Amino acid sequence: MPLTGCWNAVELDQWGFVQGIAIDTGKNNMIELTVQFYKPGGEESGGKKGGGSSGGGETVNLKTRDASVFEAIRDITIHLGRKAQWSHMRVIIIGEDLAKKTELGDILDFFMRDHEPRPTVAVAIGQGKAARYLTSKPFLESSMGMQLRKSEKMSHQFAGKTLRATLMDLAHQLKNETQVVMMPFIYFDPKSQPFEAAVTGLMIVKNGKMVQKVPPNKIEGLLMLIDKYQGGIIQVPCSNRSKEKVMEAIEVDKVKTKFTVKTNGESISGHALVSIDGYAGALSCSSLETSEEVEQFNKKAAATVQQKLQKVALYFQQQKLDVFGIGDRIFRKNPALWSRLKPEWEDRVARIPINISVKVNTYNNGVDGVYFAWGFPNAELVLFSMLLPFVKREGKHVGRWMFTMLLVNGISLTIVIVCTIMGLGQMTGIYKYSLFSLARLIEVRDFIERIESIPGMALIAGSYMKATIVLYITSLGISQLFRINDYRILVFPVAMVALLLSLTMFTHEVEFMEFVNNVWPLLITLTGVIPILVLTLVTAMKSIKKGTAGN
């Protein structure tokens, strides 16, 4: 009975929900906290949306000072009149001066030990005073804490300009043997008016303290070498235009790096195998119409990336920074060897030979037109054959009507292709949705325009219709395979699996296009067309055998 008591019960109106926190060095080396709280009823109270100051808006900022982070946090209740609740905190920003003077582990110790802060909260170092980033006004989000968190995530995922670091990531990195940690860097962009905070940098922390900023032109290469590059653009110079700095671009789908360390006694070498998949984003002096041209372009891109990565590795070796985790790999593999190498590791890491191999695989717009057209939409029509048992056969012309409608569909598709080629010319093969792009060209006396919504709605409606039919076919097929009497009990589980797959299968548009163009035609043939054709042939043979036996 006593175990059922709630020892830390707090009413909702006694909580102050933290959105973000900035930690700086104050006067007399005091710790200065700027804590951003969500303000209940911020819109109704007449304040402007976004907050950023001590009054009005959806957030309110509170400052406290004390000798330690823990004491400064305990002082919040004195001023706020509520207990700080940390489970909804989005970001922790550490001031540049504090990061240089105080060890990172000491600054974040409270947040790592306390049970309320989430281990996925974003952590970054801010140029100058960290407090000013929370007093800025957000663009779309309700608070600066949320905006900075999303900016860090998107800059890492789609631009390759920074590295996403969470409280859990830093807790692990601070325990590594080399004591080298990489953190996102926030600064105010002087080119924008008014100044806006941008998360497009990396800071190196060594032995708990910030030591230097990674040069912007080294960030993408560093992320590739440590296998943290998620997306961005790779620029490749034109080889036939030496006088002009013309660049071509590859939109990166995925980068996979395998970094291996070999030891022979106390002799150490490193090897990085970097594999890059992407789509041609902008071509100025190359053509990818033939396989030979694609191979030549891939070799040129691989040579460009390899040269860039070699310079990045050399730069960090000259700085005596083991950002690649070579020391940690040696420690895990051979602790005794690492104990001998560790005292002079900074000098050793500068002399380690690192070999880098790069392989680039560039996709253009599919493997082949016929191959793609077979997978979408022709092969998918075979799946609809499972609906034939439900067709009312009042006459003997069902097959004739089916072939007639298939012919009408082919003629309609041919007309669409001809119209798009006539309207878009050579650009037809570049646009992903050529009919939609063609409709956007229609303008009749400033009255009939923007009719691309019609093919857009047709695409959406057709997608939902096809998804519904395939959902029914899948549920029906599973119920018949496992002899389940009512297929309807499978509809919700199958739909839930399809929903989860749609949210997790693809993280980037390029990855989706690669799957549709290259994988889907083969997959639908192996899993859909061939099994149904085999069943059809087996059924036909059984019917013929029964007819022969009857005669």
Mean pLDDT, rounded to whole units? 85
Largest pleated sheet: 9 strands, mixed
DSSP E strands, number: 15
- Poorly predicted ranges (pLDDT <50, ≥5 residues)? 44-56
Beta content comes to: 15-25%
From the N-terminal CA to the C-terminal CA, the straight-line distance is 82 Å
Helix tally? Answer: 18
**Rg from Cα:** 30 Å
- How would you sum up the global shape? globular
Helical residue percent? 40-55%
Provide the structure class. alpha/beta
Give a description of the structure.
This protein is of the alpha/beta class and 551 residues long. It is built from 18 helices and 15 strands. The protein has helices spanning 69-74, 76-80, 96-101, 104-113, 131-134, 144-159, 167-173, 216-225, 291-318, 326-333, 335-341, 345-349, 369-378, 398-424, 434-439, 453-481, 491-504, 509-550, and strands at 15-25, 31-38, 59-66, 83-85, 91-95, 122-126, 180-189, 196-206, 209-213, 233-237, 247-264, 267-282, 354-363, 443-444, 448-449. The strands form 3 sheets. Strands 1, 2, 3, 4, 5, 6, 7, 8 and 9 form a 9-stranded mixed beta sheet that branches. A 4-stranded mixed beta sheet has the order 10-11-12-13, with helices on both faces. Strands 14-15 form a two-stranded antiparallel sheet. Strand 7 (180-189) and strand 8 (196-206) form a beta hairpin. Helix 13 (369-378) crosses helix 18 (509-550). The longest helix is centred in the C-terminal third of the chain and has 42 residues, at 509-550. The radius of gyration is 30 Å and the shape is globular. It starts with 14 loop residues before the first strand and ends with a helix.
